C-alpha cells in the first residue's frame, strides 16, 4: 500500500447553452480557471451555444443589451465591441477567441450535444479541432462523475 494515496483529480463540467458574450465569457473563464487549479475541466455546448465551437463561431459571439436596445439593428455589434474592450482594459480578460484558444492549450475538453448537431444538420468537420460529440447519456455520465456541474 502506498504511503501517500494519490489524490483524486476534481472534475468541473459547465454547460454553455448560448452564443452570447454574457454566457460564453463565464463558461470559458471558469473552465480555464478550473484547469489551472488542477481540475479536469469540461464544457458541454448545446443549443445556440454549439455555434461557439464551430469553425470561426467564436468570432460571431454577440452581446445583446437588455430591453429595447438589444432589438435595435447594429446595437448588439457596437455593445459587443464595447464589452470586449472593457473586459480587456478594466479586468484584464482576453477576447473570447483568445480565451477559447487558451482553454484548448490548457486542456479544457469541449463537448458538443448530438441532438443539437442533428437538429442543426451539422457535421464533425464543422467544429474546431478537439471537439467530442456526445449524446444525453454521455453528458449524464460526465455530470454524475463531476464534482462541480454548472449551467451557465
3D structure, described in words:
This protein is an alpha/beta fold and 152 residues long. Helix content is 39%, strand content 16%. It has helices at residues 21-36, 75-91, 96-105, 114-119, 136-145, and strands at residues 11-16, 40-45, 109-113, 132-134, 148-151. It has a 5-stranded parallel beta sheet, sandwiched between helices. Strand 1 (11-16), helix 1 (21-36) and strand 2 form a beta-alpha-beta unit. Helix 1 packs parallel to helix 3. It starts with 10 loop residues before the first strand and ends with a strand. The mean pLDDT is 95.
What is the ordering of alpha helices and beta strands?
A: EHEHHEHEHE
Secondary structure: helix percent: 25-40%
Q: Which ranges are low-confidence, i.e. pLDDT below 50, for 5 or more consecutive residues?
A: none
Strand content: 15-25%
Oligomer: single chain
Lateral strand order in the biggest sheet: 4-3-2-1-5
Radius of gyration: 17 Å
Shape: globular
Return the structural class. alpha/beta
Q: Report the strand count.
A: 5
- Mean pLDDT across all residues, rounded? 95
Keyword list:
152 residues, 5-stranded parallel beta sheet, 5 strands, 39% helix, 5 helices, alpha/beta
Structure described in brief:
This protein is of the alpha/beta class. It is 39% helix and 16% strand. The protein starts with 10 loop residues before the first strand and ends with a strand.
